[in-house]
Structure prediction request, 166 residues.
Amino acid sequence: MGPVSVARVHIDVMLKDEILDPQGQAIERALPSLGFTGVREVRVGKHIVVDIDDADDLDRRVEAMADRLLANPVIERFSYRVE
Amino acid sequence: MGPVSVARVHIDVMLKDEILDPQGQAIERALPSLGFTGVREVRVGKHIVVDIDDADDLDRRVEAMADRLLANPVIERFSYRVE
Prediction:
């Protein structure tokens, strides 16, 4: 067996659009007083970077991991990209 | 003047590599007991989605916003992409 190749996976976890995001709203309201205008909406989520052994089943493992541990599927949705 | 075009900007804010990330370490330690093996490192940060009026100075505004409000430049670094 050759050396194991390691993939870097970037996972974004955001509240679903229909769920209120108070943290995003707080930022949205703070921006004008700091001189930033023209901001329509701010939403805040998590960005998770995972270094993981690469293999054929990488997508399956990442999706299971996000679904079971990283995101709460009731109120959050996730997306990811492999670097 | 035509209608204002709105850009969607995705900003990632992560702890600098040399700063300890206890939340990432907690996830890292939880994964094997959930059956996920082969994970080398996990780091957790913020993913911020900003809908903002587009203009020539978009980059300057996004960088100033991230630097002054969204990230703590002492311990965090940010990157962004415009959709």
About this structure: Helices of chain A lie at 22-30, 58-70. Chain A has one domain: 6-82. Chain A touches chain B at residues 4, 6, 10, 12-14, 24, 27, 30-31, 34, 36-53, 55, 61, 64-65, 68-70 (CB under 8 Å).
